Amino acid sequence: MKLLRQTPPDPQQLALQLDFFSPDTSSQPSVDQPAPKHIPPRGTMPRQEPPELFPSPTSSAPPLASAGRRRLHVGDHILEYRLQRSKRRTIGFLIDEDGLRLTAPRWVPIAEIESAIREKQRWIFTKLSERRERSARRLQPQMQWCDGATLPYLGGELTLRILNAQAAGIAYDAATRELTVCLPPEAGEQQLKDRVQGWLQAEAKRLFAERLPLYAEKLGASYQSFALSSATTQWGSCTAEGKIRLNWRLIHFALPMIDYVVAHELSHLREMNHSPRFWATVQSIFPEFEAAKRALRNSGPETLPIF
């Protein structure tokens, strides 16, 4: 079965982005903190701190060669970070593929920057841990498309069973969580992928058709139509006319994550923005949205099978 054709994006719509597909660093975990309020004296240049290192007395780690990289003792840890100076008025914290990066005003001394790091240490270590876990998942071997292989389905796993048969067919046993696919002996891997993808898309369409009316009723609103999406940058979208598109790959995830996206898109029927009023609307029909939102954000493409 072929992939569903994707229509061009509608400029009159709001979309729920898949953060992890975007190369833009604005999608990376970040936070700002006000810089200290003192300002350097008029007519003087801000004092440039020399590169400093803060290695553990017992550490044998080599010194950092780059002037932009620094080390700091935070509790029992040695935290490495990159520092960039700028004209901004706040201290910005960003977690990306290279770890922690700080952007600070040129006039803020190192001691106050590192004091800000200690204040944010819980957030920093949480985000660094999440980043390491995602990197580790990327190193896991890819799924092998064969009899006995498993793939994610509704937050759990289903097992593929392949039967050699001339007649085409596919059936799911909910009790054993097995998906049996009938294929002729000469069938290749792509035929298996197409058959499984077609079944998953049909399941997604069936489930979305059940969940959308449920949350629309809670909201007291109605949508015009819905369709599946195969987008690589959006979980869903909603136009001003009430046309909703939901990514079929949501079928891999647990029901609360699916319901969050459904509630999110339906809430745009009331608020075509992401203002506090919008999030209050989401919460009114799906109170657990914060936990589901975090779970969805932490579910990277490396967790999904490649079709």
From TrEMBL:
Disordered: annotated segments: 20-69
Ranges of Low complexity composition bias in the record: 55-67
InterPro entries per the UniProt record, alphabetical: UTP_pyrophosphatase-like, YgjP-like_metallopeptidase
Superkingdom of source: Bacteria
Record domain YgjP-like metallopeptidase: where: 90-298
The protein's name in its UniProt record: DUF45 domain-containing protein
